[in-house]
Amino acid sequence: MPSRMPALFLGHGNPMNALASNDYTEGWRSLGRSIPRPKAVLCVSAHWYLPGTAVTVNERPRTIHDFGGFPPELYRVRYPAPGAPELARRLQRLLSPLDVQGDDTWGLDHGTWAVLCHLYPDADIPVLQLRIDETQPAQFHYDLGRKLAPLREEGILIVGSGNLVHNLHTYAWGRHLPAPYDWAVRFETKARELMLAGDHAPLVAYETLGEDARLSIPTPDHYLPLLYVLATGQEGESIAFPVEGVDGGSISMLAVRVG
C-alpha cells in the first residue's frame, strides 16, 4: 500500500454514463487501472444533500436510482459493493466533535455508482458515502475535507462526485451543441488556474467570482464535492485533470486528481 492515496473529483454528468462507453467512461476506467487499489472508497456525492452531516453504516448498501425518465435498463443496474461500517465509525471519530449521524437508510446514489461501476466494475471494494449538509456554507465543507485528509494515508480513496459547471437550465437536452457556452469555458479555465496554483480561497468563496461563477454554479450541491477533494491535498502535491469535456454546453465533465 502506498504512503498516500490520491483523491479524485469526478464530473459524473448524465446517469446514462453508467451504461455508456465514451471518452468520459473510458477515462474513469483508466483511472481505476492506474491508481493503487484502495482499501475502501469514501464518496461525497452531490446527490446526498440534506440537512446534517451523516455517513452510511450499511454492511450492504442498496443501489439507489435517484432519477426519473430514463430507460428501463438503467433502473436494472445494481452496484453490490459492500459497505464499510468500521470505516464509518473511524470517520465519526475523525470529525468529532461534529455530530456525524450513522445512517442505514441511504445507500449508494447514482453520483457514486454511475462512476464507480467504471472505476471498479467488480464492485468488490467497500464503499461508504458522506452526506453534504445543505445548511452549511462552503468553508464548512472545505474544513471537513481537511479533517478527512488522514484517511488518504490509510489506503482510503476519497472521491467527490459532482460537476464543476452544472447548469441544467441551459443544458441541451437531446441536442449536441458544437461548443460549450463561453461562460462555462471561462469559469472552468479560471478554476483550473486556481487549482494548479494551489489557491483555494477564491474557490471556496466562489460566489465572489462573478457572473460566470453564478451561471456555472446556480446551486452548490454539484460543486461542493470538489472542495472536499481539494482540501485533502498536501503542500506540493500534484494536480492533474485526467478527464475533460463539457456535455450539453453547460455540464463540465472535468475530473481532478490530487496526488
Summarize the entry for a quick read.
The chain contains 9 helices and 12 strands. It is an alpha/beta fold and 259 residues long.
Summary keywords:
259 residues; alpha/beta; six-stranded mixed sheet
Overall structural class, as computed from helix and strand content, comes to alpha/beta
Shape: globular
The major β-sheet equals: 6 strands, mixed
Number of strands: 12
The strands making up the biggest β-sheet line up spatially as 6-2-8-1-12-9
Structure annotation, total helices: 9
Enzyme class: oxidoreductase
Pfam families: LigB (PF02900)
Cofactor: Zn(2+)
Family: Belongs to the DODA-type extradiol aromatic ring-opening dioxygenase family.
Task: Describe the secondary-structure layout.
Layout: E1 7-11, H1 23-34, E2 40-45, E3 49-50, E4 54-56, H2 72-75, H3 85-94, E5 101-103, H4 110-119, E6 127-129, E7 132-133, H5 138-148, E8 156-162, H6 182-196, H7 201-204, H8 211-216, H9 224-231, E9 239-240, E10 246-247, E11 251-252, E12 256-258
Parallel strand pairs: 1-8, 2-6, 2-8, 3-7, 4-5
Antiparallel strand pairs: 1-12, 9-12, 10-11
